[in-house]
Specification:
This protein is an alpha/beta fold. The protein is built from seven helices and nine strands. One of its GO terms (biological process) is peptidoglycan catabolic process.
């Protein structure tokens, strides 16, 4: 997500292992061709170069998470450009807010919800909170901040948000609380295995898994985070608010 904020560990995972990750994510879920996608920010636009979303889609990536906002004063300058191009290319869109716990959660939720207003329709995934820094708050205060942010975003968008985090952060900064286990989890875990885990916070399954920060795919210049959808929220086309899968 935000380079330089989170400690990243280099790892690679063979694509053929991803189907096994799906089977491990949800009990009784049969292995299938994985629903995959990158997540991107301004880092994926070196020198202002565009992402070729048709190439991304043709390489078998069905979705992407795009950074929308951070704190109260940052909008990704490529957010609108990427969202429009993704829509044309048939890539399901997700948008995330990079949390700044030193600032009001309600104000950040309103800021984010206003910026992403245009991507809460067909082909669009639920809102995402990227929580990977504490802002110096102790766990009890950070837990309260997170509840307030999520509740506000859900009231403004009408959709239950996804939480993005990584295990060590949740176990330390959030005191491994299980108060959010009812929210879909997007977990960053570069363990080189065929499934993330053990999961923090009382989550019994994950919805998205960011399994590397050093992926390379057609259409994107340089390294990019890569993710897989587990099926925990049901059919991906339905979860991405689409009447039918893209490309059908």
């Amino acid at each position: 997500m935000a380079i330089g904020v989170k400690v990243r560990r280099f790892s690679k995972i063979a694509p053929l292992l991803l189907a096994g990750a799906l089977a491990a994510a949800v009990p009784g879920h049969a292995a299938a061709e994985p629903v995959r996608g990158p997540d991107v920010a301004s880092w994926q636009h070196p020198g202002g170069s565009p992402i070729d979303w048709f190439a991304v889609r043709n390489a078998g990536h069905d979705f992407s998470m795009v950074k929308a906002t951070e704190s109260l004063n940052y909008v990704n300058p490529f957010f609108v450009q990427d969202c429009l191009a993704m829509r044309v290319a048939g890539v399901a869109r997700g948008a995330y807010h990079y949390a700044d716990p030193t600032q009001s959660p309600e104000a950040q939720a309103a800021f984010y919800s206003t910026v992403v207003l245009g991507i809460n329709g067909p082909g669009d995934m639920p809102p995402v909170l990227d929580l990977e820094q504490s802002g110096g708050l102790p766990p009890a205060a950070l837990i309260d901040w997170t509840h307030r942010y999520l509740n506000t975003v859900q009231s403004l968008t009408g959709r239950q948000p996804i939480i993005y985090t990584y295990p060590n952060f949740w176990r330390t900064a959030m005191a491994n609380t299980n108060e959010f286990a009812g929210y879909p989890l997007w977990i960053a875990d570069y363990n080189g295995q065929n499934t993330p885990g053990p999961l923090p916070g009382g989550w019994s399954n994950w919805t998205f898994w960011q399994y590397t920060s050093t992926g390379r795919i057609p259409g994107v210049n340089g390294d990019v985070d890569l993710n897989v959808y587990s099926g925990a929220q049901g059919d991906f086309a339905r979860y991405s608010n689409s009447a039918s899968p893209f490309g059908s």
